[in-house]
Amino acid sequence: MKPEIKVPVTDQSALKAKGFFFAGGSYKGTPGNSFWSGQMFVEVYIPVEIRHPYPLVFIHGAGQTNLNWLGTPDGREGWADYFVRKGYVVYLAEQPARGRSAYHPEVDGARRYHTVEDIEGRFAGTSGKWKSASLHTQWPENALKMGMPLFDQFAAAQVEFMRDTAYTQAQVAAAAGDLLDKTGPAVLVTHSQSGPFGWKIGDDHPDLIKGIVALEPAGPAFTNDKETPSAKNYGVCELNMHFDPPVESPADFVLTRCPAERDGEADGWMMAEGHIHKLPGLSQVPVTILTAEASYHTLGDHVTAKVLGQMGVSVDFVRLGDIGIHGNSHFMMLEKNSLEIADLVDNWIMKTVEGRRENE
Known about the structure:
With 360 residues, this protein is α/β, with parallel strands linked by helices.
């Protein structure tokens, strides 16, 4: 008698092989009390037929693990299976001190988490205080708030993450070199908190990062202060990068207001004319930023795209609503039309990244 399957499963016929490994890290602690720290747990999925020259490396955002790419709260095919089915080798990384990448409080510091109320308000429902929040229609059915079974599945998947943003970025950047030694040249797919990871990794390894797909990358650029043009970070990252001319600290940036481009967006800060710092390394990497119609990221992603452009980066900034993909919010890879957006990513990679390779 065959067992009855009572949990969501997806077809794996496109998968030939899978595995896992750890990238980066080092021994820490004291003699007699040593441990390995700073590593990234990474899963790899190999399709039956590899049809693309570059693998995809997915890095999740705050409070998440690589489950974001494995499936949806309502059991539909996730992006990992979709891209394997399309013939890509897929790597799913988990940030240091997150998920199956060990956390050590003595070196990693304090952690925090998303409250359920925050998840309901920012990610699942239509009650957000930004103008387009009411347009949200694509969140999975029966997953809007506590007590709904599919929402409870999403809430159950949330985990703690490190409070120190700069430390987190430094840990990921340190592990990235080892990861890329194993993957070879790759395309990065980032989401939210991991957006700055992509900018830093691309800046450090422009020869190995062939493209970056940034789903609503973390911001805002330079500072949260809406009134004072004084940079608190390096524009698109908490860490310094290979700027030309170089900068020693955020205080070296001279800022001017970056106005909202349309109703519902917010002003931000960009570099002032005559005080532009370029990123020659990252400028070698094609980038696309995708912003969902009903997300709180409608407030500021236009500023991130503008600042990257000032830094010399070629950015395809796509507001999904402008191209007829409506009703999405921040977790577009989990929503009802997630594979329509995956199609968009696939097409961009083939046209912009692989097309560029063919023309070299």
